[in-house]
Amino acid sequence: MSLSKVEYVKGEEQIFYRKDGDFVPADLKEREHPSLKQRLQTIAALSGIYYLVTHKLFRPLMTYLLSKHPQWKALGTRPGTFNKDAQDEVVYVGMAGVHHVFCAALAEYARRMKRKDENSSVYGISHRSLYVYAGLTEFAFEWVDFLLMAMKLWPYQDRDPKFTALLIFHHLFGLLNFRSTGNELSHRDDVQGLAVKLLGVAGVGCLCYPLQQLFNLQTKSGNKKALALNTFNMACHAYVRFYLYFTKAYSLFKEGESHLVKTNQAHLTKFAWGGYYSLTVFNVVVFLGGLQKMALYINNIRTLK
Fold first, then answer.
1. What is d(CA 88, CA 159) in angstroms, rounded to the nearest whole number?
2. Distance of alpha carbon 237 from its chain centroid, rounded?
3. How far apart, in Å, do the first and last CA atoms of the chain sit?
4. Torsion over CA: 193, 195, 196, 197 (sign)
5. 211 near 229, Cβ under 8 Å?
6. Comparing C-alpha atoms, which of 294, 170, 169 is closest to residue 235?
7. pLDDT for position 58
8. CA atoms of 153 and 140, how far apart (whole Å)
9. Which candidate, 245, 299, 231, 242, places its Cα nearest to that of 275?
10. What distances in angstroms separate CA 186 from CA 80, 245, 249, one per listed residue?
């Protein structure tokens, strides 16, 4: 079933979207989507909540739990993959993993609500609004992190150039694409399914990383376990951040570009593609970091008795 159609009204192209079985003009449909002001207000509120929950409550809890691991002190004696402080890195990546999985679960719940009933809602919140909140909650992570960078707060207190540059490429995706959250294209089932896969698998990979780093690298057994988990992580990474991202996500960005042009929002295409290519850089660098870890584990296995 087509979600939109194009007709010519008084010689001008007019886009219509399907609503309740009928087609309505695009300008009327777009009024249902959050305005720029509404998005900014929502992200500001979610960013405050995100900071309080993750940095004031969850970060101390995760640090406490990880510090109970026998290899925690040993982890503090070696650098991380991208951060000079491996302990800070595993806590940060673990927090990001929980956040990504939560947003993916929220988006999937909204997707299932829509599949069950187009007019479904939970506590008065429609599936469309719930999906928008999932996206904006994910983007709040990027906004908060940029503020932390600017203020030289954890985990950017040391201004580690490699770590900071890597996260800038990641966060630019959210900063440049948050305005597209809630448009008609983002509510398509295939688009939502792809978003859930990208976020969900990325989150699982982030949650695996602290475990991988806490294996005892002074033993062959520890390196073999770390290698196995790293290989699993890289396989997931290759599937989602390369195969899906460079095929399906690219096609959807091309389709989104056409949508923006037709709805007189062509100026947003540069932001969209800027975010796409910045995340591409992040994906490649993270994969190279995984290869570096793989080489380390294999070398340790060969040299250790």
1. 13
2. 13
3. 63
4. positive
5. yes
6. 294
7. 92
8. 17
9. 245
10. 36, 16, 12
- Per the CB < 8 A criterion, the answer to whether 256 and 154 are in contact is no
CA distance 94 to 254: 33
Rounded to 5 degrees, φ, ψ at 167 are -70, -30
Question: Which residues on adjacent β-strands are paired with residue 16?
Answer: 5, 25
pLDDT tens, position by position, 108-152:
999 999 888 888 888 888 888 899 889 989 989 999 999 999 999
How far apart are alpha carbons 291 and 138 in whole angstroms? 27
> Widest CA span of the chain, in angstroms?
81
Q: Is 242 exposed, middle or buried (0-12, 13-18, 19+ CB in 10 A)?
A: middle
Q: What is the pTM of this model?
A: 0.85
The first and second tokens of residue 215, run together, are 């294996």
SS (H, E, C) 206-233: HHHHHHHHCCCCCCHHHHHHHHHHHHHH
Interval 12-26: pLDDT, tens? 444 454 454 454 454
β-bridge partners, 15: 6
Structure tokens at 283: 């994906």
The counts of H helices and E strands in the chain are 11, 5
Confidence of residue 35 (pLDDT cuts 50, 70, 90): low
CB-count exposure of residue 220 (10 Å: 0-12, 13-18, 19+): middle
Q: For the chain, list the strands marked E by DSSP.
A: 4-9, 12-19, 22-25, 121-122, 125-126
Q: How confident is the model at residue 202 (pLDDT cuts 50, 70, 90)?
A: very high
Tokens of residue 270, six digits:
């540069």
What letter would DSSP give residue 85? -
* Cα 269 to the center of its chain, rounded Å: 20
126: left (phi over 0), alpha (psi -120 to 50) or beta: beta
Structure tokens at 127: 């599936």
